[in-house]
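Ticket #4471: structure export looks truncated?
Reporter: QA, pipeline team
Priority: medium

Steps to reproduce: submit the single chain below to the structure queue and open the exported record.
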Amino acid sequence: MSYTVGEMAKMLNTTPSTLRYYDKEGLLPFVGRSVSGIRMFTDTDYEWLQIIGCLKKTGMSLKDIRKYIYMAMQGDDTIDERLQLFLKQKEAVEKQLAEINETLDIINFKCWYYQTAKEAGSTEVPKNMSLDEIPEQFHAVREKLRRPNKAETYEQKVE
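Actual output as written to the record:
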C-alpha cells in the first residue's frame, strides 16, 4: 500500500515537515515518488522510519543515521559495520539510562524529603535525620549528595 507524506506522518505521530526534512538530509533514499514527483511511502518505509526515529531518540547524529541507511542498502557486505554501529549506540543508551536512573533516584529522594518535611512542618527534620532514620532505598543518594566532591574545592586550592 502507498501513503502520502501526510498519511505517513500521521501514522508515525510526527509532522510532514519532519519527513520532508529527513528526505532533504538524505535519510530517505528508499522512498519512491509518483510520476508527478510526490513522495510515496510504503509499509516497508514505515519500518525504516521507525528505525530512524528510534536512532534519533538515542541521540545518534543524522550523519550516522544516514551512514547506517546507506550501509543497509548495500546489503550483507556491511552486516559487521552495522552491528558495530548498533553496539556502540547500545552502549551510549545504556550510559544515558544509568544517568537517568541516577537522576530519578535523586528526585525520588527529594520527593521523600519534602513529603517528610511537609508532615513535620519543617525541612530541618529530614535534613537532620541520621542515616538509619532515612529509608534504606535513599541511603546511597543521601551519602552522594552530602559527600564532598573528591576533586579539590576552590578553598583547598587557595590554601
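Status: closed, not a bug. The export was complete when the record was re-opened. Leaving a note from the reviewer for reference: The chain has a mean pLDDT of 91.
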